[in-house]
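Exercise 3.2. Students should predict the tertiary structure of the chain below and write it as structure tokens, then compare their answer with the key that follows.

Predict this chain's 3D structure.
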Amino acid sequence: MILEIAEIQIPPGQQAAFEVAIAHGINSVISQAQGFISARVQHGIESPERYILQIEWASLADHTEHFRGGPLFPAWRAIVGPFFAQAPRVEHYELVI
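Answer key:
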């Protein structure tokens, strides 16, 4: 299992609309992706324009090759991309313990 963590920064005042959009994007697009296991979104308290998206994938290739290289990625970006104040910072992690 691979954990993808994406740090997302949005413009001030867009929180409510972004939260609707990201929920829609996860439920209608990402959840259909090969190897998708689960997703969570955390909202910053000290930085209210900052969100952390956590997605569990069965393998790294499921995210980097199948999802990002397939037709679902443009659909995902069309939903959430307009809210990005800058490109999200994305990293992948493996379970150790």
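Discussion points: Residues 2-94 form a domain with the Alpha-Beta Plaits fold (CATH 3.30.70.100). The chain has one domain: 2-94.
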